[in-house]
Amino acid sequence: MRRRAVFKNGDCNILQSRISKRRLRYLQDIFTTLVDSQWRWTLTIFAIGFLGSWLLFALVWWLIVFTHGDLEEDHLPAKQAEANWTPCVFNIQGFTSCFLFSIETQHTIGYGVRTTTEECPEAIFLMCLQSIAGMIIQAFMVGIVFAKMTRPKLRTQTLQFSKNVVICQREGHLCLMFRVGDMRKSHIIGASIRAQLIRSKTTKEGEVLSNFQTELDVNADGCDGNLFFIWPMTIVHRIDENSPFYFLTASDMLNERFEIVVILEGTIESTGQTTQARSSYVASEVLWGHRFESVVSYNKDRQGYEVNYSKFDNTVAIDTPLCSGADLSEFYRIQQISDVDMRFLSPYRLSPSNSFLVQSAPISRVPSLEPLFKKEPSTTNGQKTSLNQNDCKIQIEDSFMEKPYKELKPSKESKSQKECKAQKEEAKRKISAINAVKRQSDILEEKEEEEEQTSVTENLI
Fold first, then answer.
1. Of 109, 127, 420, 421, which is least surrounded by CB within 10 A?
2. Can you list the positions of beta strands (E) in 156-299?
3. Where are the domains of the chain?
4. Average pLDDT value for the chain
5. What is the separation, in whole angstroms, between the first and last Cα of the chain?
6. Between these two residues, 355 and 335, which has the higher pLDDT value?
7. Antiparallel, parallel or unpaired: β 286-288 and 165-170
8. In the CATH scheme, what is the code of domain 37-149?
9. CATH top class, domain 155-317
10. How far apart are CA 360 and CA 382, in angstroms?
């Protein structure tokens, strides 16, 4: 099983290592670094920042009052009136007083005990500088806290993806489907969804691309553009000739190593910010032959549509062909060419291998019991065709059919031998059409094998 590149909760399983000057690069974008960091680290950095600014300005205040002589014994606050001394800052007795004055100035507390005088111009300048620095630090902290609390990433916690993807038939095609829902009343505006297939690929030159990404064509319940995302929606990827799963059967799907990354993007209605929700699915999370159970119903008591999220991940097993999308398309193409009645066809009994189950409708217009073919069976291009004289039965056995044609009983309405011969010719034309398709497919397979052998030989040379 392939290791996930994206976890189910949307986090990327990517480890960055050996980055030159990593710390310097992160410090150059300090705002994004603090927003992306965990809360404990953000609050710790802000606490250290505030404490460091208080201590730094307290030291500068202490140097100013010390050089002015305010800390001399005769110039302390108790003797300033007797000595007729005017200090730079009133009521400063030491470094502790300077530290308290630094806090009061930076946060504009203003207790009124310690104040700046006009004696020292440098003290006035420092007071203005510290006030500006305090406002910048507080604004920076408020901005980061607000950005962390309103991050669009948090909106993804109320966006839900189904645990599994399912594969079933829809409109005659195999389809890979998953479900996404929004649990809030405020909607995602302009929501769009896309899917990426990640798997290894080998180029013609022999280069192995271990994480090759392929865009999957997806739509939501018939919406090709933006989603009208008011209730859980089923996202559908049709497995057609443009799909990377076109040649994979049910058994092949289990053995494949791939990851489907689904991405939902849109604008948050309440904040106007763009959000992105992610999830992923691996091969073990694919349920073949299942479809999602309906979760939306109308509640007459509450007069509104009710979404039952307890059934969000529930699936229902249904009859689904085990063959690949290519085999199923070929089956329907042969059926269309041979003009076989659909009432007797059952593609759900197809095996995972390249085989087809074709069972014809009874040809009721055979009018006569006269033998039309020889009693000995004749062989034409790998098909054995025989006619029973007693019941005018046509039977076709082919190597790529698992079961022969249904018995064809004669009609009681027609009695003309000419009509019976015409019916015989019609059956022959059907057989010829099937042979032509079979021969064409064999030729294409032979050409593909020759091209593969040629490319392998060229690579070895």
1. 109
2. 159-161, 165-170, 173-182, 188-202, 208-216, 219-220, 233-238, 258-268, 274-282, 286-288, 290-292, 296-299
3. 37-149, 155-317, 325-460
4. 79
5. 33
6. 335
7. parallel
8. 1.10.287.70
9. mainly beta
10. 18
